[in-house]
Amino acid sequence: MKQLQPFTITGGQVVTPAGVIAGAVRCAGGMIVAVGADVAPEAGDAVIAAKGQLVAPGLVDLGVFAIDKPAFHFGGITRAALMPDQSPPLDYPSRINFIAKSGKPDLWVHPLAAATRALEGQQLAEIALMKEAGARGIATGRRWIADSGVMLRLLQYAAMLDLVVVTHAEDAALVGEAAATAGEIATRLGLFAQWVHLLAPKLSEVIMSTAYGMFPESPAATGSAPGAVPPPKPTPEAITFAKVMRGLHW
After folding, report:
1. Helical spans, DSSP H, in the chain
2. How far is CA 87 from the centre of its chain?
3. Which CATH number fits domain 7-55: 2.30.40.10, 3.20.20.140, 1.10.10.10, 2.40.10.170?
4. Are 66 and 102 within 8 A, CB to CB?
């Protein structure tokens, strides 16, 4: 996306490799040209006042199952790796090529190639051709590879192509159709959220919205240095809310 005018973001908490600093960021020609506490707007710059908010690079979501551009923009996500279990699966170079070209220039979508044909865990897909088409990695999506021989060949092939393999850490033979892990904790917490969402979806949204407003942000979420600010203590109301709504978010 062509930048029409240089701009400087001032008065922000800038996230840098060395940590969060108070300073400014200046951009010109579509690139970041200056970052630091001593950066100031130049003549002709548009000035954006951050007012103490975090100024960070675009976030990269390494594993999404759908592309929602408005949600990504709202959350600050500029790049996303798309899992292969789509409809149809990303197991052909033409499908990889189509996904790799979508979303630009304000959102970059990096497809992950299906490890096996149709994600069935039996025959390796044309991974080399999919890499040429734009695949940035290999993934099994929500599926798994039961055959150790297939997995071994996949890892060898991926190492030869210098591609990362993202596998679903789950044994389908053990999981079956279960919705929760059997045991004391699962029994005690219950599946309150599933029932609320099934019987009253709007009520579920109200409960979650109330929770977000009731619990304060952690020091990490506000950009404070580790140990600089003590973690906030929950109020008695918040503790009661969490106990009553067990299984929903706690």
Report:
1. 69-75, 93-100, 127-133, 148-161, 172-175, 184-189, 192-199, 201-214, 236-244
2. 21
3. 2.30.40.10
4. no
Backbone angles phi, psi at 159, to 5 degrees: -65, -40
Domain extents in the chain: 7-55, 59-175, 184-244
Contact 69, 103 (CB under 8 A): yes
- List, as own/partner pairs, every contact residues 189-192 make where C-beta atoms lie below 8 angstroms and the sequence separation is at least 24, other chains included: 189/246, 189/247, 190/246, 190/247, 191/247, 192/245, 192/246, 192/247, 192/248
**What 3-state class would DSSP assign to 54?**
strand
Per-residue pLDDT tens listing for the chain (250 residues): 566 799 999 999 999 988 999 999 999 988 899 999 999 999 999 999 999 999 998 899 998 999 988 889 888 899 999 999 999 999 999 999 999 988 777 889 999 999 999 999 999 999 999 999 999 999 999 988 999 999 999 999 999 999 999 998 888 877 777 666 666 655 555 566 566 666 777 776 777 777 777 777 766 666 666 666 777 777 888 888 777 766 544 4
CA distance 6 to 130: 38
- Per CATH, the number for 59-175 is 3.20.20.140
CA pair distance 147, 35, nearest whole angstrom: 50
Query: Token pair of 160, please?
Result: 């030869």
Q: What CA–CA distance (Å, rounded) separates 47 from 216?
A: 31
Q: Which residues pair with 139 in a beta bridge?
A: 114, 166
